Ferredoxin (Actinomadura luteofluorescens), 82 residues
Amino acid sequence: MRIVADHDLCLGAGQCALFAPEVFDQSDEDGTVVLLTESPPEDLHETVRQAVRMCPNQVISLHEAAEEADADTTTPVDAPSP
């Protein structure tokens, strides 16, 4: 798993840091997302997926290695229902 965050679109809500503080933090300057690691260990993958789903502006994307291929694929994550 590789995480990518669009800092320019981040609102600084902090949901990612709340759900997965081992992987996400917030900038002291503007509160936007800071990745502590782009490739978290496998035991944090589900927690990261939950954090990504909670992002109100959906600025975090996950790229997971295909199990039988070397290429990365983007995994869509559904936003929570209002």
Summary: The chain has a mean pLDDT of 87.
